[in-house]
Design goal:
Blueprint: H1 6-15, H2 19-33, E1 40-43, H3 50-58, H4 63-71, H5 77-88, H6 90-101, H7 105-124, H8 129-133, H9 141-149, H10 158-170, H11 174-189, E2 192-195, H12 206-215, E3 219-222, H13 225-235, H14 238-250, H15 255-260, H16 266-275, H17 291-317, E4 339-342, E5 345-348, H18 365-380, H19 382-393, E6 395-396, E7 399-401, E8 404-407, H20 431-447, H21 451-466, H22 480-485, H23 499-502, H24 506-515, E9 524-527, E10 541-542, E11 547-549, H25 559-562, E12 567-571, E13 575-581, H26 587-592, E14 598-606, H27 617-637
Parallel strand pairs: 1-2, 2-3, 3-6, 8-9, 9-11
Antiparallel strand pairs: 1-12, 4-5, 7-8, 10-11, 12-13, 13-14
């Protein structure tokens, strides 16, 4: 018995007042344990690419397309592709079909609905009925229940099912049911979604991704360094606020800040237009056709970078344990403003910094006004605050689930593969203990009541963004300043923590898994953060098959080096499959040409035997519930507790 006290059993008896209700609950839970292991979906490094993200989610990384091939092997390829697109994008595909089929549209749609129902049945077959009903959208819950339970092929039910669909056609409700069946199919295909960080930055759809995730019934997030930057920006960290603004200007992707979150960048833009000289290094990476707007973005970009460097210096100065003094480069500029010293070497600046070389770190009153106005806007943005609270509440530094360890960046290691002891938090921490304490600090930045505790936590968020021993950054130093101002590319290099080379070794990967309590031969470390360079021959599978990197390049900026548009994983009852994806060139092609982003699907790991729900973390929790219910049944049976409810005769169809 998990909870043996009589008080607990009394509370449990309020939900299960009779022996019959206990028997029913135990029987249903035992049956649930024998169902196949639920399907999990792993994605990472979305970087605001909403269209690609939602396509990957709706096609379940190729799972639905595979089911269609299995169910309809004789169906022509073109029709299989069309059916898949109807499930992925029902509303848009129906518009396309209506335009192309004219008078045959409704009959064709009815036939495709029959096929969709078979696909829905296939993906729903691993769930119990109560779980299925929880996914049914209103107002046609009973109708959907009937369509998924009844077999049209059955001798007695063909006309029954046909009559339902004919009635829907006559009353103009067929399209809504098609949408509902498509949504239910997508929901059934994957039960649990894991997002391994970096939802924000580069693309302009991060807010739409956050809306999607907030509506998802079962999702968890492992924070990435870009997510931490947005958390810090929303909670009052000035350097992190300027970092997210700078990146948005760099990629010409200010929509999330200005339109979605209602944060005006006008104070920054106006001051930059009047006081900042444009620089070639600050021209937006993503093309801007309007010359005047391009000039404004370039100047604002340069000002944002300068304010970032100045506010970073404030945080570094008040946190000597961060050991980041070498990153304060503005005060290493020569008196004539033409040279800067980096690691003891003088380099020419390729353009003017726009600061007083005699007093480079001072924030002017005008700059202070801009920072104050922007900070208030970030902290008052209601939708941003809602998203950040969700990101914190559903997120974490790592997650251990179903024999897998998930985290975004790295575990700081020494060159010999041992866990590196860090000191930036004021105590020696390494491995799992380090991640646990950092998890607490992120939450403290949002929820701490004392101003001092909050400020310290906000400064730690800055360290997580770019500090040497940050598990989310994972590099020796960040070279943002050098990339903008120094021509010599040797200064741009960001040397990675030994983790990134040592994770190729099986013994190192296994030692990390063991540190998190994972000893199974099927345990897997799932990692994001660093794009896999497929054209260079790099494999996403490392550590003797016990580690998979799934950052393959959702963001277009990475695709020259990755050769893909992202990797994702699907874990089902048979094993773990990796999907490689193609980039979406035109959104219209998704519908008109039935384009599918998933290009490859292969097993990373096959289980020796099919996993059942009892062989999962959730299954072990259900087993605990069964133990409690068994104890309650025994208490009823032995007269320790009196049964409640209606126990009299006469239940059922016939009297007894």
């Amino acid at each position: 018995m998990t909870h043996g006290s009589s008080k607990y059993l009394e509370l449990l008896s309020q939900r299960y007042p009779t022996r019959e209700t206990v028997v029913e609950a135990i029987a249903m839970r035992r049956a649930t344990l024998e169902l196949p292991k639920p399907t999990e979906h792993f994605v990472s490094d979305l970087h605001g690419e909403f269209t690609a993200f939602t396509h990957v989610l709706r096609n379940a990384s190729g799972t639905i397309r595979r089911y269609i091939g299995e169910l309809f092997p004789k169906l022509p390829q073109k029709e299989q592709d069309g059916l898949a697109t109807l499930i992925y994008y029902p509303r848009e595909k129906m518009e396309d079909l209506r335009a192309s089929l004219a008078g045959d549209y409704e009959e064709r749609l009815k036939e495709q609905l029959f096929q969709m129902i078979l696909v829905a049945k296939r993906v729903a077959s691993k769930y119990d009925h109560d779980h299925l009903q929880s996914f049914f959208p209103g107002p046609y819950e009973k109708l959907l229940d009937t369509l998924l339970l009844e077999e049209r092929a059955a001798r007695h039910k063909r006309h029954y099912v046909d009559a339902i669909l004919d009635a829907l056609m006559e009353m103009g409700a067929l399209e809504q049911v098609v949408e509902d069946v498509a949504d239910v199919t997508v929901a059934f295909a994957v039960e649990h979604l894991h997002v391994l960080g970096d939802i924000y930055d580069r693309g302009d759809g991060a807010h739409r991704i956050m809306d999607f995730l907030a509506a998802h019934p079962r999702v968890d997030i492992q924070w990435g360094n870009h997510d931490i930057a947005w958390i810090g920006a929303a909670l009052g960290s000035r350097p992190l606020m300027m970092s997210v603004i700078r990146i948005a200007l760099r990629y010409n992707a200010v929509e999330t800040i200005e339109e979605a979150y209602g944060i005006s960048l006008l104070p920054l833009l106006r001051y930059a237009e009047e006081h900042v000289a444009a620089g070639e290094a600050f021209i937006p990476k993503v093309e801007e056709a309007d010359p005047s707007r391009r000039m404004i973005l370039t100047r604002a970009h340069k000002l944002a970078a300068l304010l970032q460097f100045k506010t970073e210096a404030e945080v570094i100065a008040r946190n000597p344990l961060f050991d980041m003094d070498e990153r304060i480069l503005l005060d290493r500029v020569s008196a004539d403003g033409k040279w800067v010293q980096v690691e003891g070497v003088d380099y020419p600046l390729r353009e003017d910094l726009g600061v007083d070389p005699q007093d480079p770190l001072t924030i002017t009153p005008e700059e202070e006004g801009i920072l104050e106005e922007l900070s208030k806007a970030f902290q008052r943005a209601e939708k941003l605050q809602r998203h950040i609270r969700f990101l914190i509440d559903r997120g974490g530094m790592y997650k251990v689930i179903n024999d897998n360890l998930l985290f975004h960046g790295c575990i700081p290691l020494n060159g010999d593969g041992s866990f590196k002891e860090t000191h930036f938090l004021g105590e020696n921490l390494s491995g799992r203990a380090l991640l646990d304490e950092l998890d607490r600090q992120v939450r403290r930045a949002r929820y701490a009541e004392k101003t001092g505790d909050r400020q310290r936590a906000l400064d730690i968020l800055f360290y997580l963004w770019c500090g040497q021993d940050s598990p989310l950054f994972g590099k020796e130093r960040i070279t943002t300043f050098e990339r903008y101002y120094i021509e010599d590319k040797n200064t741009h290099r960001e040397r990675k923590n030994p983790y990134y080379s040592l994770r190729e070794k099986e013994e190192v990967t296994l030692s990390i898994l063991r540190a998190f309590g994972l000893n199974s031969e099927r345990s897997l470390l799932i990692n994001g953060h660093t794009p896999v360079k497929k054209p260079s021959g790099e494999s996403p599978i490392k550590g003797g098959g016990h580690l998979v990197v799934i950052d393959g390049g959702f963001a277009p900026a990475y695709r020259k080096t990755t050769g893909t548009a992202g990797y994702t994983l699907i874990s089902n009852s048979y094993g773990i499959l990796m999907a490689a994806h193609k980039p979406i060139t035109q959104e219209e092609a998704l519908i008109r040409e039935n384009f599918d982003i998933t290009s490859e699907l292969e097993y990373v790991m096959k289980y020796k035997k099919r996993r059942r729900r009892w062989d999962t973390d959730e299954g072990r929790a259900i087993q605990g519930e069964i133990e409690d219910l068994t104890a309650l049944f025994e208490a009823y049976d032995q007269g320790i507790l009196a049964e409640g409810g209606n126990q009299g005769p006469g239940r059922g169809i016939f009297p007894r």
